[in-house]
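W.,

You were right to be curious about this one. When I first looked at the sequence I had no strong expectations either way, so I just let the prediction run and decided to look at it fresh. Below is the sequence, 103 residues in total, followed by the output.
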Amino acid sequence: MVEGEEVHLAVLEETIAGFVSVWVPDRFIHHLYVSAQYQSQGVGSALLQACEAMYGRPLSLKCDVRNHRAQRFYRSKGWFPRETGMGEEGPWEQLHSSPCAEL
């Protein structure tokens, strides 16, 4: 669900390659998806950079602990874990785009 969130698309070759939805008051990225055919081509990085340019830092998001590919991606971009929890899908981490000193 993205009600009340701002949604931004990444379009390549007239195709939606991915999207990001942001709950602006908290600078919280609720969804960031990249189509399988466009993964590892910089689409996710471009969406994160666009969010930083539009909303500033810090940004945050929750990521499933078992989603190792996403965990590696966010950590490679300098995101830091701040909080953990358990949801219906299993354990998650809340990641932030800035170290503690910038919050």
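Here's what jumped out at me. The chain has a mean pLDDT of 93. And, maybe more interesting for your project: The two ends are 27 Å apart (CA to CA).

Coffee later to discuss?

I.
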